[in-house]
Amino acid sequence: MYEFADGIEQPAADDNGFFLDRRNFLAALAATSAGLLGGSPSFVEAAARDHSLNHQVNDLVQRLRRKGVVRSNEQTSWSVYDFSTGKKLVAINEDVQRQAASMIKPFVAQAYFYQATHSRRVRYNDDVRHHMERMIQRSSNSATNWLIDRVSANRGRRGPRDVEAELKQHAPGIFRQTRIIEKIPPGGGTYANKASAHDYSRFLYAIWNDRLPYSAELRRLMCLPNNDRIVTRVSAISHPLQVCDKTGSTAKLCGNMGIIEARDRRGRKHAYTMIGIIERPTRAQNYTQWIRSRGDVIRQVSNLVYLHMKDRHGLV
């Protein structure tokens, strides 16, 4: 399938690693035209139906660009996956490696959990849990650096690179565009660590389906109350929803990645991922104003996504 990402057509891949390149796309299209797909729905019709939200999100971002709310030098990535249907609904610039900011912190936690699973010397005790909660809920940079040091001490003593190595040793298919090379510097201006929206999507998919060590604990940590941008102050969400997430904020990046869970009219739960990243090449002159404005952009996209999910699943 092909997506229109901020006006750029790019190939997309789903969370199971399936990739449909241009040759396969054209082959499938030709097969549809020739009737080789039998009684199955039209490939084009299915793509249009499944990815209508993708186009809506892209159109919204383009309108915000024309209004100057999102600047021409700012790049965005968006990803939405519906757990109820197993469909990727939005994949815009999903595989572009972007600054991670504090969204790298759940990855640091996952690296430690791998070590706690595979080594008797590594324990998940109260002290570590306390630092984890500060890192995820409070976005504490000192707690993050403390955990990076612990992961490194248990591996090669190469610092943050040991976190990346631990992740890619055990789950290279998830952390494909992840790059972890620095601790959080004084002042919190961390710009070197990177990941893609697709990495976050695969990670969230894995912890939601208990496919990673300590998945339940990671969900607990990410569900602790915090100042998210995907549910809080989203206009269409009139009552509290369950959200497991992590924000990222620097003078060059505003982001949020998480899982939102809501109920339908029958009380059944429906969950989906919502990932939004806005990145600029230089530091914003007014950090507070910029991060608030771009946080509201993510809220607008999340609002659009929620309304789509509400109509799709009859959410209340």
Automatic annotation (TrEMBL):
<feature type="domain" description="Beta-lactamase class A catalytic">
    <location>
        <begin position="128"/>
        <end position="265"/>
    </location>
</feature>
<dbReference type="InterPro" id="IPR000871">
    <property type="entry name" value="Beta-lactam_class-A"/>
</dbReference>
<dbReference type="InterPro" id="IPR012338">
    <property type="entry name" value="Beta-lactam/transpept-like"/>
</dbReference>
<dbReference type="InterPro" id="IPR006311">
    <property type="entry name" value="TAT_signal"/>
</dbReference>
<protein>
    <recommendedName>
        <fullName>beta-lactamase</fullName>
        <ecNumber>3.5.2.6</ecNumber>
    </recommendedName>
</protein>
<dbReference type="GO" id="GO:0008800">
    <property type="term" value="F:beta-lactamase activity"/>
</dbReference>
<dbReference type="Pfam" id="PF13354">
    <property type="entry name" value="Beta-lactamase2"/>
</dbReference>
<dbReference type="GO" id="GO:0030655">
    <property type="term" value="P:beta-lactam antibiotic catabolic process"/>
</dbReference>
<comment type="similarity">
    <text>Belongs to the class-A beta-lactamase family.</text>
</comment>
<dbReference type="GO" id="GO:0046677">
    <property type="term" value="P:response to antibiotic"/>
</dbReference>
<dbReference type="InterPro" id="IPR045155">
    <property type="entry name" value="Beta-lactam_cat"/>
</dbReference>
